[in-house]
Each structure stands twice: as structure tokens, then as C-alpha cells.
Amino acid sequence: MIKYVFIAFGGYFIISAVSQLVTDAFDIYRSHKEFDYWKNICREYMSQIDFETHKSETLTKRASGTMLIYGFVILLYLVIAYLCFNFPCIWYKLMN
Asked: Each residue of 57-70: pLDDT tens digit?
């Protein structure tokens, strides 16, 4: 029975990692769209070049930070999922 519990935990970690990745990828996509919306409103106050520079710097830092964090989180989740899927074998080796 415990084997199935750990398989379910492993599946949960994989599903959780994928759903978090999709959510934040959508957030970055929406941020690009919101910047484009504000570009039209701010064109009287800021030059196109300044706006594009600000957009590039802001979103690039945000995307880079997100990718770095999610690379680590997904790696961690995959390791935990692997351990969960292989728990019966690992437990058997530890006990013997």
C-alpha cells in the first residue's frame, strides 16, 4: 500500500512543478502584454526608445530570475518525484 502512496506523491510533485511553470510562464507573457498596453498610454511622456529599454531591462531581469528559480525548483521536484517513485527499492536497500 505504501508503494502506491509514494507513487501518488511522485505524481503530485511532477504535476505541481509543471503547473507552477505554466502559471509563471503565463505571468511573464501577460507582463509583456501589459507593457505593450502602457506603451500606448505613455508615448506622450516617454520616448519609444526609453520605453523599449525599460521594458527590456525589466522583463529580462524578471524572466532570468524566474528561469533560474524554476530551474532549481523543477530539479528539486524531479529528484523528490524520483525518490518517491523508487521508494520501495530504496527502502529495501536501506533495510538490508
From this structure: 887 887 788 888 88
9 contacts: CB under 8 Å, gap ≥ 6: 80, 81, 84
Query: Cβ distance 56 to 62 under 8 Å?
Result: no
Domain borders along the chain are 2-87
Q: State the cell numbers at 7.
A: 507513487
In one-letter notation, the amino acid at residue 57 is: E
Consecutive H or E run containing 54: helix 48-85
The Cα diameter of the chain in Å comes to 74
pLDDT digits over 20-37, tens only?
Answer: 888 888 888 888 888 778
Residue in 16, 39, 20 with CA at minimum distance from that of residue 28: 20
Q: How far apart are CA 22 and CA 31, in angstroms?
A: 14
Burial class of residue 19, CB neighbours in 10 A (0-12, 13-18, 19+) = exposed
